[in-house]
Amino acid sequence: MIRPISFAFLLTLASGAWALDLPGAANETDRREELASAQPFPSGAFQGESTPRIMAEGDIEQVAYKLNGTSLTSYQMIEPLRTQLEQDGFTTLYACADTVCGGFDFRYLLDLLPEPAMHVNLGDFQYLLAAHPDGRFVSALSSKARDAGYLQISTVSPSDAPEVELRPPSTSGTTAPPQSEDLIERLKTRGRVVLEDLTFETGASNLGEGPFASLRRLADYLKTHPEVRIALVGHTDTVGGLEGNTALSRKRAEAVRQRLIQLYDIAPGQIAAEGIGYLAPRTSNATEEGREKNRRVEAVIASTQ
Fold first, then answer.
1. What is the pLDDT along the chain (305 residues), one digit of tens a residue?
2. Radius of gyration of the chain (CA)
3. Are 131 and 92 in contact (CB under 8 A)?
4. Of 113, 119, 163, 175, which residue has the fewest beta carbons closer than 10 angstroms?
């Protein structure tokens, strides 16, 4: 269903709603929203696996538009958006046009809504990535076909709730403040949670002996909610290649899955294990502290049926 847009596109972000005027008579063709997720944006021209990217985390909104019969070029469609963003305090991180971006290869780095809602003419498109000091990111892609213009605007705004960090159980004889309830509440309300207290051998998939408070609480929740299905998703830092890191992250997620099955008797069909390597960092991999935060396993609710 195509929905006409008059005057302005209202972006609902963490800081509230703000208006971004669209060029011409733009009609909304599709949209997709995802809470508490991550979106990689290219921040430089295509260079294969070395293409620079920025991983924006938060609430994601993607909206596609069609401008029927427009005479505007792809540049004329996107340039007013850049001006408005900069007036609203955004900084342009990267902007390019079709072949300068990398053509076909660059376009397929982008997470775009499917045809026919968003069409890209590989010989005529413009890309823009901008960031705000408050953590918001906006990406825009415009493209001109023979009889229409197409535009997608993707926004990521920081999620309101802070990350929940679980500490390892106290070994000093004193009782540590309970953290497990926060884990389950975050899992239920945000759909995912980092299992912060897990430990692995360096460069290996062997899960430490534990016990781990996060797994105990997660197991209790799964037993009392047999309709819930979760996916355990492994993440790594950027040391090494993508293929090896993806395999390692999947093995770590599988090790956690096996611990839940074998130690806590969770039904195997209730838990899946996946790995995405270093493609969704929590922070920069430029420091050891950052790399340590990026090495993690998350629990994600996959189904509640």
1. 434 433 344 443 333 345 678 877 888 999 988 887 888 899 999 998 788 988 888 888 999 999 999 999 999 999 999 999 999 899 999 999 999 999 999 998 899 998 999 999 999 999 999 998 888 899 999 999 988 999 999 999 887 534 433 334 333 443 333 344 478 888 887 778 889 899 887 678 889 888 899 999 999 999 999 999 999 999 988 888 888 988 999 999 999 999 999 999 999 999 999 988 888 777 778 888 888 888 899 998 887 66
2. 22
3. no
4. 175
* Domains with residue ranges and CATH for the chain: 3-157 (no CATH), 180-303 (3.30.1330.60)
If you search the block for the tokens 């209730």, which residue do you land on? 270
Write down the pTM of the prediction: 0.53
Please give the Cα distance from 257 to 268 (Å, whole number): 8
C-alpha span between 195 and 178 (Å, rounded): 14
Which pair of tokens denotes residue 203? 């460069």
Residue by residue, DSSP assigns 123-180 as TSEEEEEEE-TTS-EEEEEEEE-SSEEEEEEEEEE--SSPPP-PPPPP-SSSPPPP-H
